[in-house]
Structures are given as C-alpha cells and as structure tokens.
C-alpha cells in the first residue's frame, strides 16, 4: 500500500482547489457571455386583424381593364409668376387664384388634390400628379392700362390749363 506524505497531500489539495476554482470561473464566464454566442432572436410577423377597407382600396386601385384615365387637374387661375432666367437663380414662385383667394406657390409644393407644382416658367406653370402633367398659362388682361382691370373705367385725364 502506498501512503502519501503530508506535503504531497497539501500539494494535491492545492492543485484540486485551483482546478475547481478554474472550473467555477469558466462556468461563470460562460453564463455571463452566452448572449454573444446565442443566435439572433426570431421576430414573428405582425398578425394583426385584417383590414377589409384597405384591401378594397388596393383592389379598386388596380387597372383591371388597362390604364385608367388621367386625373382631372384642379380648377385654378394663374395670376402671376416670378421666374428668373439667370443661371443659379432661385426657382421662382407663382401667384394663383384658387377658390377666390390668391395664394403663393413654390416649385415642389403640393398644391391641390395631390398635384405638385413642378416648374415655374415665364409664360405659366406645370403641375404634376404621378405621370400626368398639366400646363396652366399665365392669364393676361384683355385690355386696359397696366395695373388696371378691364372692367373698371379709366380715370379722367387731368387738364394743365386753368
């Protein structure tokens, strides 16, 4: 039979204690860092209630029998434009009579029923809605002096003689 000396027992006990400590440390680190090795979480799709109104709208928007007619342009009257022609100048703006009120519109602005002011030129403006384009010419007065409307009478001319 083989007997161990006390020095050998204490050396073996210390080695066993170190091995157990290392194993406990490895288990703790594995537990704390397991999130890094875990697979990405699985996100399920949204199983919300069906939307019959939205589905009906999408079905009605399809072109079942070919392309649909272009949308009708909004009713408005172009009163004036500012369209600089110099390179690097501002885009300009348009003054529009829409429903009896004068409004100022800039290019890119959504103006009426989804129509967007696409471009301002010296003779009118271009409105766009998806693929449809509509040109509105500048309204010019029929007759009369500058700054006067055609339905107002001209002011009397002044006499220089006393």
Order of the strands making up the biggest sheet: 4-5-6-7
CATH T-level topology of the domain at 77-137: SH3 type barrels
Strand and helix order: HHHEEEEEEE
Strand fraction equals 15-25%
Largest sheet, strands/sense/barrel: 4 strands, antiparallel
What structural class do the secondary elements suggest? alpha+beta
Query: Which CATH architecture of the domain at 77-137 would you pick?
Result: Roll
In terms of per-residue confidence, which ranges show pLDDT below 50 for 5 or more consecutive residues? 143-162
Mean pLDDT: 75
Radius of gyration: 41 Å
Global geometry: elongated
The number of helical segments is 3
Question: N- to C-terminal separation?
Answer: 154 Å
CATH class of the domain at 77-137: Mainly Beta
Helix coverage percent: 25-40%
The tally of beta strands, per DSSP, is 7
Please, could you describe this protein's structure?
This protein has 162 residues and is of the alpha+beta class. The protein has a domain at 77-137: SH3 type barrels (Roll), CATH 2.30.30. The protein contains three helices and seven strands. The strands form two sheets. It has a four-stranded antiparallel sheet with strand order 4-5-6-7, with no helix packed on it. Strands 1-2-3 form a three-stranded antiparallel sheet, with no helix packed on it. The protein is elongated and about 125 Å long. The termini are far apart.
Key features of this structure:
162 residues, alpha+beta, SH3 type barrels, four-stranded antiparallel sheet, 25% helix
